[in-house]
Amino acid sequence: MSVPRNSTFCAKLWDHICLRYDSSTSPCCRFRTDGNPTLEKKSTLHSLMNDEFYQKLREKALKGIPIPGCQKCYDQEACGTPSLRQTSNKTSLLTGNLNKTSDLGNIDSLEIFLGDRCNLKCVTCGPELSSSWRLDYKKMAWPMPPQIRPQIETLLPELPKLTSLTELKLVGGEPFLYREQLPILEALATRASSINLVYFTNLTHIPSKELLKLWTSFKRVQVFLSIDGYKKINDYLRYPSQWKNIEVNMRKFFDLAKNNQNIELFVFTTVSALNVWTLNDLNKWYHREFTDRSPTFTTKLIFNPLEAPEHLSINNLTSLQRKNAISRLSQKSSNEMRVINWLKGFSFSNKQNELLEYLSRLDQMRNLNSMDLFPEIFETQV
Fold first, then answer.
1. Residue 82 CB partners (closer than 8 Å, separation 6+)
2. CA 254 vs CA 251, 283, 298: distances in Å
3. Ramachandran region of residue 155, left (φ > 0), alpha (ψ -120 to 50) or beta?
4. Around 182, how many Cα atoms within 13 Å sit in the side-chain half-sphere?
5. For residue 16, what is the enclosing H or E element?
6. Is the backbone of residue 219 left (phi > 0), alpha (psi -120 to 50) or beta?
7. In whole angstroms, what is the distance from residue 188 CA to residue 15 CA?
8. How many separate helices (H) and strands (E) can be counted in the chain?
9. What is the C-alpha separation between 186 and 180, in angstroms, rounded?
10. Which of 4, 41, 122, 212 has the smallest number of Cβ neighbours within 10 A?
11. If pLDDT is split at 50, 70 and 90, which confidence band does 1 have?
């Protein structure tokens, strides 16, 4: 596609839509702003895509005007890291002249948050995406977001109309806890051989036999294994999971990939102020387990910076903390070099007090000790 040569144009404003956990929609999962149109019982994908909200975004993109909700991509590009915006523009199938409207025939990727059902309480998550977090929020007397079930059934009649669809991403909670995804996949059965499925899993559940059977019809199934730390770091960050169980399930996914040519595995690591100190250990573990011991299928390790909550992001590290973290990363690793560039380029959010208070309350409630695992966070640095 020949796209406008400006720094704000993004094809996803025309060819993608994301149904979020609260039934709001957005151009992609990274987009952050208020006032997004909401999928309701009487909504259609076509009406949502051509809501005034999206038309204004497209006008800005065509004119090269920065869009506040796209700041994450702008920040990554400023650090020399390829952003989702840039990769989307390279791979988009859009043709012809573009204007402020779009239609179902343009959609080549769809992202559906199935809901908040999840068995973990990851430190970087919250009750919006994990039902297990809600009890802890009540104990801490923190503001509780409303629990809204996405109107997934509203989409079913329109799915066969997505004639250009090549990718469907199904997100949780933990997606392998949801039988509700089965009718979604069944609705796409006639075009399954042209569609890639994408999942992000916490590695505590294995896909059901029913789901695995449906997967065989799809072109490719890409499973991103969310692993944020090695051993004790995992047990703290992805509480209450245990590393020994994660490794057992990881090998089950190995077997799935070995026995099914259309299944691909990725290790997806969310880089935060807590695990940035031990990414080198995780990188070594990945190469030892995946590259050296699993030659029969291809995998990839992906580092992605945490955006929210901001007090847990690497933006919240002081200049001396960043220098310390950089000293522990290898310049020989492309993944770790990417993190080094983020540490050098991301602005300082100055939310250290919020971070320390959060960890203190979490430790007290869960009987854990973040100071032992992340001593660098507690050092007085400027």
1. 76
2. 5, 18, 10
3. alpha
4. 11
5. strand 16-19
6. alpha
7. 18
8. 16, 8
9. 11
10. 41
11. very low
Are residues 76 and 83 in contact, defined by beta-carbon separation less than 8 angstroms?
Answer: yes
Q: Where are the beta strands (DSSP E) in 183-324?
A: 196-201, 220-226, 263-271, 299-305
Model pTM score: 0.92
240-261 as b/e, with b when 16 or more CB fall inside 10 Å?
ebebeebeebbeebbebbeeee
pLDDT of amino acid 21: 82
Q: In sequence order, what E strands does 176-334 have?
A: 196-201, 220-226, 263-271, 299-305
pLDDT in tens, 206-242: 999 999 999 999 999 999 999 999 999 999 999 999 9
Q: For the ranges 190-194, 211-215, 377-381, which has the lowest average pLDDT?
A: 377-381
Cβ pair 356, 377 in contact under 8 A: yes
Cα gap 13→75, rounded to integer Å: 19
| Residues 228, 244: Cα–Cα separation, whole Å | 15
Query: How far is residue 184's CA from residue 154's CA, in Å, rounded to a whole number?
Result: 11
Six-digit token string for 2: 């020949």
Q: How far apart are CA 55 and CA 14, in angstroms?
A: 10
What is the residue whose two structure tokens read 């203190």? 360
Torsion of CA 227, 228, 229, 230, to 10 degrees: 10
